[in-house]
Amino acid sequence: MIRVENVSFKYKNSENKILDNLNFSVMDGEIIAIVGQNGSGKSTIGKLIAGIIKLKEGNIVIDDLNIRKNKKQKIIQDKVGIVFQNPENQIIFNNIYDEISFSLKGLEKTELEDRIQESLEQVGMLKYKNEDLYSLSLGQKQRIMIAEVLAKRPKYIIFDEPTTMIDSKGKEKIYKIIEKLKKEGYTIICITNLADEILIADRILILKNGKIVEEIKKEDLIEKAYVFRKFDIKEPTLLEILNSLKEKGIILDMKKFTINELVSKLKGKLKNEECN
Amino acid sequence: MQIIPFIIFTFIINCLLDNLYNAIWISIKLFIVCNITIIYSETTSISGIAETIKILCTPLKIFKVSPDEIKIMICISLSMISILKRELYEVKEACIAKNINFNVKNMKIILAKFFLSLITRINQLEDSLIAKGYSNE
Ligand SMILES: Nc1ncnc2c1ncn2[C@@H]1O[C@H](COP(=O)(O)OP(=O)(O)OP(=O)(O)O)[C@@H](O)[C@H]1O
Ligand SMILES: [Mg+2]
């Protein structure tokens, strides 16, 4: 479990607080989406949890580990992995093997190879194992970056707008990976602005001016769709559809089904309608 | 073959300051060195270059400098070059779109823009290096 308690943050050269007394927690095995406008401090909270920037006010507790009291960054980074927006700025080597083993200092060779093999398989990139990294597409590069994080075997993974730069086919593949990772028991924090990424999450936190202004559970999504509009965030199209279906008397429950199941349910309903 | 004017220039300078024999000799040397460099950088990959330098640096082991660390350092700097190149292209295209000529007079604007966006990119690279376990502590 990750607990964020009274966290405030200010960059050295900025005047006002980027994060202002933030409180939330992430349960094990949960996917959380953090949404908000540009500059609302989403990336900052992600970097704080991953131990990339130093915490000064408040506490972040990961399992039993208090980040502020912890001196060794490595212990945090073994628990929490982070994937950034632009894969181009994360790749260092030209070779997939070198790139992934770069994060895995001090492992034995056989163990290293096992991990690389396994993580590439998890993201479906095993067949590109011997290709040049620079010749891959942006979506494939991002999948390699995910593999690199997975190879460290963290318990928590933070995605900071992982698909913003990637085309829709590549996006879909990454969503599939995230959903699969949840099934495998990873705990995921997904920082995002995209409606589709919101729908993967179990819980959605809306961040504005460094404060959490709203928390929506997946099962309340349909009723609370108006909240997105209130904070100028594009509401997922699926919610619009479900809402207008509800007005027509067709009620589909988000609590019980995943998106794919909902879609097949909808298909079934439509078929029935056609028969009538 | 952008180096030819440069070689001719060196040749003339050397003719004026030194003798003809030396000028020819230096031009030939320059030509060979440039070509080897170009051929080498066009045909091998980044990690290929780094690997070669690593092998060349192996004797440094006696000074307790690990060749592997050198390789990582070179890879990071080379990946910086590709980021730099991409950034320069993007700035150039943005300037063209805004009708700013890419010339010496406008260099100030272009460089300012270039360094600003470069800083953001370097910050991102730095973040991801820390995330990969290479912090500056
Ligand atoms: N290294 C830094 N130094 C100073 N200020 C920064 C730094 N990084 C970010 N900021 C500022 O902090 C604020 C929040 O940044 P942050 O990156 O967390 O926002 P964000 O919600 O992730 O935005 P985006 O949607 O653009 O990614 C912004 O106003 C930004 O200008
Ligand atoms: Mg951000």
List the helices and strands and how they pair.
The complex is a heterodimer of chains A (276) and B (137).
Chain A: E1 2-9, E2 19-26, E3 31-36, H1 42-49, E4 57-62, E5 65-66, H2 73-79, E6 80-83, H3 96-102, H4 109-122, H5 138-151, E7 156-160, H6 168-183, E8 187-192, H7 195-200, E9 203-208, E10 211-217, H8 225-230, H9 237-247, H10 259-275
Parallel strand pairs in A: 3-8, 3-9, 6-7, 7-8
Antiparallel strand pairs in A: 1-2, 1-4, 4-5, 9-10
Helix pairs in contact in A: 3-5, 4-5, 5-6
Chain B: H1 3-17, H2 20-43, H3 46-57, H4 67-97, H5 107-131
Attribute tags:
heterodimer, A: 276 residues, alpha/beta, 6-stranded mixed sheet, 38% helix, globular, B: 137 residues, mainly alpha, 5 helices, 78% helix, 0% strand, flat, binds adenosine-5'-triphosphate, binds magnesium ion
Helix content of chain A: 25-40%
Report the sheet with the most strands of chain B, covering strand number, pairing sense and barrel closure: none
**N-to-C terminal Cα separation of chain B, in Å?**
45 Å
- How many beta-strand runs of chain B? 0
Can you characterise this structure?
The complex is a heterodimer of chains A (276) and B (137). With 276 residues, chain A is an alpha/beta fold. Helix content of chain A is 38%, strand content 21%. Chain A is built from ten helices and ten strands. Chain A is globular, with a radius of gyration of 20 Å. Chain B has a domain at 1-43. In chain B, helix 4 (67-97) packs across helix 5 (107-131). In chain B, 10% of the residues are buried. The model of chain B has no long low-confidence stretch (mean pLDDT 73). Chain A binds chain B through residues 47, 50-52, 73-74, 77, 81-82, 84-86, 88-95, 98, 102-103, 105, 132, 134, 148, and chain B through 45-48, 72, 75-76, 79, 82-83, 86, 121, 124-125, 127-133, 135, 137. Adenosine-5'-triphosphate binds at residues 11, 13-14, 18, 36, 38-44 of chain A.
